[in-house]
Amino acid sequence: MSSTSANNKSTQHGITRPIQISVPIRTPSNPAICQFCQMQILWKTAGGTPQQSGDQGMRRECIAIHSEFFTRPASEVAPDLIGCFLSIGKVGGIIVETEAYQPDDPASHSFSGPSLRNRAMFGPVGHCYVYRSYGLHWCMNVVCNPGHAVLLRALRPTMGLETMATRRGTQVEKLLCSGPGRLTAALGIDKSHDGLAFDGHPLSLVEQPDCPVASVQSVRIGISRAIDVRWRWCAAQSQWLSRKA
Length: 245
Description:
CATH topology: 3-methyladenine DNA Glycosylase, Chain A
Shape: globular
CATH superfamily: Methylpurine-DNA glycosylase (MPG)
Radius of gyration: 18 Å
Number of strands: 14
Strand content: 25-35%
Distance between the termini: 9 Å
Oligomer: single chain
Largest sheet: 10 strands, antiparallel
């Protein structure tokens, strides 16, 4: 049975911190656009003061994730990535499903140590590890501590949907990024992205502090070892998952 927890994007390393952002006040005729996710930032115009965090209709600009966020075990980073925004170029979406893999985990590529295939897993944190699964499709991971990585299993597509649909050969939005192979196909990810940083050139991974997401935890999918380890996290009640939690 899945367990439910609140995933607050203003919490890192177990410490809750207020997020203060200085931004200009915009009007409906002159909206601000987030530089990361390209979504409109909404402000309260009456009185010239932004609404308080959590007020209906309010969203602030995304916040770039620093390397300290990833300098942790994958099992800690994976749930915190739920609700973050992932993009490459002009396509992207909100992460709704992740899985953690660690060097002491028999299901992990790093279990037997470094190799030519998994060398990115032992490289800098906050970088991309890409591998081909069963010779069929690419899988995209975020590197954490040495030998630790978080598999990105599904997105809620929000940007560049037409491009995604062309790449995927379907107009059904639920099928664009609901699975690790579908996700990489929709984003145009391949082996050339292996080892690249999530620094906006071209991969970007950012927090959305005003969009806390509740998550559910369950066992991982499609593995034959450590099948009872509950290192899969999903956005609660999301319709964009690869499989129900």
